[in-house]
């Protein structure tokens, strides 16, 4: 039955941190998707919320000297206010401490107990508290730090050893059913490349999953054994069903779960298995997005580069930031956030390309006494071409949006806006206005029809701005109308009543870059100052790592062959074998000291040195150039 509905969810966020650019991004994608579906006349349910139980939250609350409940209560408004500021119009904000959710989780466990899917045993192994997950040393690629401690393969932080009584969910019993499901639903995970890691994980053999914690008291008491609490992921994943419990028959299955790549296993393996055990249908799709990196690093509190979304909105405008995030980040990859790019995109796409087109068209028309623009009956050839391009623009936008390639959809749409600008300039309407009133009206009408379509297509991304744009040409957005059909038909039969907006739609952003750069550097104790000619003695070169091999007898060193262009291919040793995998270095361009005296190392000779930087978590990051340059290029 086609219910013409769309149920979209975000991860529910842990309350140990405030909202940041990463959590904003997931929630924004959900809002854009929700609005895109509303435009098509669908009934939409958009769910977000907070994940409040578990060890991580309990530990953070203890550090702060408050109860976990009090910490959650104080964090939730930060999320709600930030989402409101960003016009994220969710239908429900669920908290895992809500009574109806706890009841749903208890009923779920009881059902599993009744049908024999849960048994009591003992967990002894490793646990990652930041990720709230059990890590199997034997089957995962677990590395150790310099002191020999195990590190989480997912987040790189220290693992905790654990040994306690636990209830287990018979996950292994669902392995075949899961594999069959993935085979029958090849589009379950978007982008597709992410599906492979899931399928190979499941095929490699699933172990039963510990579903309770005895040493964590901050959680939902385990039915029948209140000394245990429900494992936080068993609790959290069920939120997607708890939230729509009363209307489950209508909304379930979810049409789209939006998640970051860090939590794919929970959503693509455990959650489907939990649902199979519950006898419920599986969600239709998972949209898995990459990380937002700031200056090429994952945002984290310890690195201190968590960009505050509220500050960004105050500086640049809410919808400008919305646009940038959706336009800049390619959903299927990690994407770099930078203020410079943000300012660039606002200037070029929004202020120059779209905003100016609107201003110039309206000003010119009104200055020439044209306020009400009537539809044209027979169009000139250039207008016909633009009309066709408008239809094409919708088709490719529709395709991009419906396949969750939002950034490509926006890139294409702005190409169309550029074409409208080209049309506008080529027609020279400021000359035509004096000579041929009819043709002048046609040009203005064609631009207005194009702007009308663009405004509707962009509405999911910049709702208020696009409503304002529509008002400037005498139209209003009517939710409930089927704009899919309107834009597909692309009938250029509208009348426009032009009105100058009080303020420009997209003012040029005031640059914040200098202000940030001018900030005095924190005083640090460091080496003495040197003169420029001292620096000139050091030859820093760009080179590509063509091979990277472990060195026998050393667990620290790699032997690299580095292509330094005119300086030839050199052997250079780097002491990062414990910290980086060869594939993290291979084929990449790095920065090398080229004129270091050759040094003997492990019976061989190193002809240079590779540069690395330590991040706030103590991991080494290689240094590189922002774009490809010739090997052997000198830095300075
Ligand atoms: O994992 N870039 O919550 P969480 C992009 N409570 N997205 C990012 C990001 C970044 N740098 N950092 C975080 C949890 N995210 C669980 C979820 S769901 C039943 C339970 C986003 O607060 C991304 O969506 O750690 C990621 O999956 C989510 O925040 C993790 O949020």
Please identify the top-level CATH class of the largest domain.
Answer: Alpha Beta
What is the CATH H-level superfamily of the largest domain? HUPs
Biggest β-sheet strands, sense, barrel: 7 strands, parallel
Q: Could you say which small molecules are bound to this protein?
A: ligand ME8
- Supply the number of structural domains: 3
Structural class determined from secondary elements: alpha/beta
Given the C-alpha coordinates, what overall shape results? globular
Terminus-to-terminus distance: 66 Å
CATH architecture assignment name of the largest domain: 3-Layer(aba) Sandwich
Gyration radius from CA atoms, angstroms: 29 Å
- Low-confidence segments, given as residue ranges, are 517-525
- Helical percentage: 40-55%
- Sheet-strand content, in percent, reads 15-25%
Query: How many distinct beta strands?
Result: 29
- Determine the number of helices (DSSP H or I, runs of at least 4 residues): 22
- Arithmetic mean of pLDDT: 92
Short description:
The chain has 636 residues and is of the alpha/beta class. 42% of the residues lie in helices and 19% in strands.
Walkthrough of the structure:
The strands form 9 sheets. Strands 1, 2, 3, 4, 10, 14 and 15 form a 7-stranded parallel beta sheet that branches. A 5-stranded antiparallel beta sheet has the order 23-22-21-24-27. The chain is built from 22 helices and 29 strands. It is α/β, with parallel strands linked by helices and 636 residues long. Bound molecules: ligand ME8. Residues 11-14, 22-23, 25-26, 51, 236-237, 239, 259-260, 262-263, 291-292, 298-299 line the site of ligand ME8. The site of ligand ME8 has 20 residues, from strand 2, helix 1, helix 7 and strand 14.
């Amino acid at each position: 039955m086609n219910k013409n509905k769309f149920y979209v969810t975000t991860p529910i966020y842990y309350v140990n941190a405030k909202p940041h650019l990463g959590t904003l991004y997931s929630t924004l994608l959900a809002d854009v998707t929700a609005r895109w579906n509303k435009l098509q006349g669908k009934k939409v349910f958009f769910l977000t919320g907070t994940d409040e139980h578990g060890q991580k939250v309990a530990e953070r609350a203890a550090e702060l000297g408050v109860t976990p409940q009090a910490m959650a209560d104080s964090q939730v408004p930060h999320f709600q206010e930030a989402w409101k500021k960003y016009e994220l119009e969710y239908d429900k904000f669920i908290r895992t401490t809500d009574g109806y959710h706890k009841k749903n989780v208890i009923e779920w466990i009881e059902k599993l107990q009744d049908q024999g899917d849960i048994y009591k045993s003992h967990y002894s192994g490793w646990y990652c508290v930041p990720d709230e997950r059990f890590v199997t040393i034997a089957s995962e690629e677990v590395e150790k730090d310099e002191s020999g401690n195990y590190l989480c393969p997912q987040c790189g932080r220290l693992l905790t050893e654990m040994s306690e009584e636990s209830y287990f969910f018979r996950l292994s019993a669902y392995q075949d059913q899961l594999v069959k499901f993935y085979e029958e639903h090849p589009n379950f995970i978007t982008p597709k490349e992410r599906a492979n890691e899931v399928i190979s994980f499941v095929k490699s053999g699933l172990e039963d999953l510990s579903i309770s914690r005895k040493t964590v008291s901050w959680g939902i008491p385990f039915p029948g054994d209140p000394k245990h609490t429900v494992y936080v992921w068993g609790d959290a994943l069920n939120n997607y069903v708890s939230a729509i419990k009363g209307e489950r028959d209508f909304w379930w299955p979810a049409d789209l779960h939006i998640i970051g790549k860090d939590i794919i296993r929970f959503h693509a393996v455990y959650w489907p298995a939990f649902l199979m055990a519950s006898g419920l249908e599986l969600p239709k799709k998972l949209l898995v997005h990459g990380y937002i990196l700031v200056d090429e690093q994952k945002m984290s509190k310890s690195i201190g580069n968590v960009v505050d979304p509220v500050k960004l909105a105050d500086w640049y405008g809410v919808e400008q930031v919305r646009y940038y995030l959706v336009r800049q980040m390619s959903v299927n990859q990690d994407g770099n956030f930078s203020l410079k790019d943000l300012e660039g995109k606002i200037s070029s796409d929004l202020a120059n390309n779209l905003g100016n087109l609107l201003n110039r068209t309206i000003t010119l028309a009104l200055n020439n006494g044209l306020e009400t623009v009537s539809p044209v009956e027979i169009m000139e050839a250039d207008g016909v071409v633009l009309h066709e391009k408008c239809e094409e623009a919708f088709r490719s936008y529709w395709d991009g949006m419906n396949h969750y390639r939002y950034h490509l959809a926006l890139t294409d749409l702005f190409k169309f806006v550029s074409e409208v600008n080209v049309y506008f300039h080529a027609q020279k309407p400021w000359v035509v206005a004096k000579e041929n009133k009819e043709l002048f009206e046609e040009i203005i009408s064609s631009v207005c029809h194009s702007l009308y379509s663009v405004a509707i297509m962009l509405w999911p991304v910049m709702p208020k701005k696009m409503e304002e744009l529509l008002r400037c040409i005498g139209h209003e957005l009517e939710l409930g109308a089927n704009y899919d059909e309107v834009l597909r038909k692309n009938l250029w039969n509208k009348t426009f009543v032009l009105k100058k907006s009080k303020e420009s739609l997209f003012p040029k952003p005031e640059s914040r870059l200098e202000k940030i750069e001018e900030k005095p550097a924190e005083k640090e104790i460091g080496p003495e100052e040197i003169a420029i000619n001292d620096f000139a003695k050091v030859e820093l070169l760009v080179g590509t790592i063509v091979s990277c091999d472990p060195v026998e007898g050393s667990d620290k060193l790699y032997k690299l062959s580095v292509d330094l262009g005119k300086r030839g291919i050199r052997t250079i040793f780097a002491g990062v074998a414990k910290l980086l995998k060869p594939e993290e270095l291979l084929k990449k361009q790095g920065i090398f000291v080229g004129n270091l005296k050759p040094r003997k190392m492990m019976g061989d000779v190193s002809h240079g040195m590779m540069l690395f930087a330590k991040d706030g978590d103590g991991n080494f990051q290689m240094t590189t150039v922002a774009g490809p340059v010739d090997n052997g290029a000198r830095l300075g």
